Amino acid sequence: MQVIETLADGLKRELKVVIPAKDMEARLNERLADAKDRVRINGFRPGKVPVSHLKKVYGKSMMADLVNEIIRDKPSAILSERGEKSATQPEIAMTEDQAEAEKILDAQADFEFTLSYEIIPAIELKDVSGIKVTREVVEIADKEIDEQILKIAESARTYETKKGKAAEGDRVTMDYLGKVDGEAFEGGKDEDAELVIGSNRFIPGFEDQLVGVKAGDEKVITVTFPADYPAAHLAGKEATFDITVKDVAAPAELKIDDELATKLGLESVDRLREVVRGQIESQYGSVTRQKVKRQILDQLDEMYKFDTPQRLVDAEFENIWRQINTDLQQAGKTFADEDTTEEEAREEYRKLAERRVRLGLVLSEIGEKAGVQVSDEEMQRSLFEQLRQFPGQEKQILDYFRKTPGASASLRAPLFEEKVVDHLLSEVTVTDKTVSKEELLADDEAEEGQSEGKKAAPKKKAAAKAEVAEGDDAAPKKKAPAKKKAADDGAE
């Protein structure tokens, strides 16, 4: 077998592989000899079929199998011998001429094919001890724990039917039918819907008009959907809702005590406080982690500058671009609405794709050199988490991961990346800084946009408060697409 390099341009490589016809014939003859004792052909005793006859009957199909095995196995072996890693699956090309293919299958012509691929560049790891990050930490006050407990307790709050008019905080049970231009719209109808006045779950202005209603009342409410409402066919439209009030109930008083804890499935109020504190710490810790990770990735991005395999960049860009366009479509927006053009957006997201790929390669190299491993148990936990997110679809998801080549990599990649970040945190300089929750959660998109070159990213919109009925088409929960955090731009 001959391997001839025909292209070496930057990271691009192309190899011509030639296997002489006599070698192909020798391999075929070995297979025919091995099959001789196993093949059963009418008119011949077992093991007595002449190889020449066997070749006449099965030669071409066996040679085709041999060609397929070479195409499947040889590329990785060739790259290994060359000490190269391909960024993506190498592209393989061979003759499409039927006559030439027949000669190869008859062992009358050399078998030739080409391998085209991009190599993963050699990365010389740099000292990271000079990286400095600030870890923002929030001290959780008892007041915040109490506030969170009260929010949680709303799920356990009881209501008692009352006589008289509905007031702020009361729960109204009603039937309603929404109309635009006198025509009912999809998702705008519900029966026995429960709404707590002041919860801000419905369209702005809707709940205010329920103040003063009482059981048995019928009323027409007029509201206007927000201009940035996620459902484009309703955005900015005036709508009416025919309301029939069935019940008005007043809320029972909420107290933070052992009785409340018991209603929530815990043994005591002290245990409830402990659980809630842990939840808040976890939420803040997640934000802290992302900010620290972003600082590390930004500094690694400055430290490492090298050409990236364009096929990887292309694939990453397509993933980003597909998501951006999906988000815009769901929000009923265009690039013009986001103060940019498609060309400018493509350029900016291309840069983002290149950053992700470059940092991915850097983190991969760091993790490999540090011996970072993702255990089977960690993979199992990640898979179970996927299953929990899609109840009712467990079988389809399991089948996907079992049958799709490379699917498990989508589970492993984020786990590996986080473990590499953990490793880096043990080597960089980390300074803790106590901040308020407002400072921790402050929106720093403007700074991100400058550092990431993401001016093309769609602007973040406030959450829609127009959920006429949660989950209905009239009130989708999706927001306009938001800028992606630099922490998420890393290497997954």
Automatic annotation (TrEMBL):
Residues 438-492 are annotated as: Disordered. Residues 441-450 have a biased composition (Acidic residues). Pfam families: FKBP_C (PF00254), Trigger_C (PF05698), Trigger_N (PF05697). One of its GO terms (molecular function) is peptidyl-prolyl cis-trans isomerase activity. Signal peptide: none annotated. Consists of 3 domains; the N-terminus binds the ribosome, the middle domain has PPIase activity, while the C-terminus has intrinsic chaperone activity on its own. This is Trigger factor. The lineage of its organism: Bacteria, Pseudomonadati, Pseudomonadota, Alphaproteobacteria, Hyphomicrobiales. The gene is tig.
